[in-house]
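[Q] Does anyone have a clean structure-token version of this?
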Amino acid sequence: MLATEHIDIYTQYSIPMWEKYCKMHGYNFFHYSEKILEDMAFTWSRIQMMIDHQKKSSADYIMMVDADTLIYHNMYDLQVSEIVNRHMKPGQQILFQKDGSDRFGLYFSHNFKLSYDLKRWVLPNAGFNIMANTEEVRNFLQTWIDLGRGRLKHIADIHPRTQNVLIRGVLQDPELDKLVGYLPSKLVSKRNTKFVQHLSAMSKEKIASRIKAEFDKTF
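[A] Here you go.
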């Protein structure tokens, strides 16, 4: 997790939840609290964080979570290995949260216009992912940063920044795109989900209130 002190209002709840989850399963939890890439927008430090962490970790898989995520109190038993075995297809090494959610039993993209423009109904949300600790994934991540600094620099600082470059750059390479799979929105999403809720487009106060409500059921 990458989170600075300016969002302590809700990380005071989300960090202990993720620490508890990791402790239950024997995982290591890492909280990065400072910007790593000085020449790019803050969110780009998450990508460098993942590269650096992969290089020094012996874990088979690394799960990156945004600070504005919560774990439902009755889902702590679900292990990363179960998620990978169930949802990562042969040849895939990365599982992204879908940038969409289920409504009335149907999946809807949160950015319909972009999905339509790119003819890609399922788009990734860069704020929650599970990645294999491999050279192929590190190349994927490095390509992501290189595009943000280079050919796609003009969109690298336009919201949603890293996702812009991921969708319009990295995933346009068939060899990199085939590494990617997607988690069901019923598992991780902004709404109508069962394992992790990823809150966004809300004030810090509303995020804090929502995470605290689940925190209070957990501790």
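[Q] Thanks! Anything notable?
[A] The first helix runs from residue 8 to 25.
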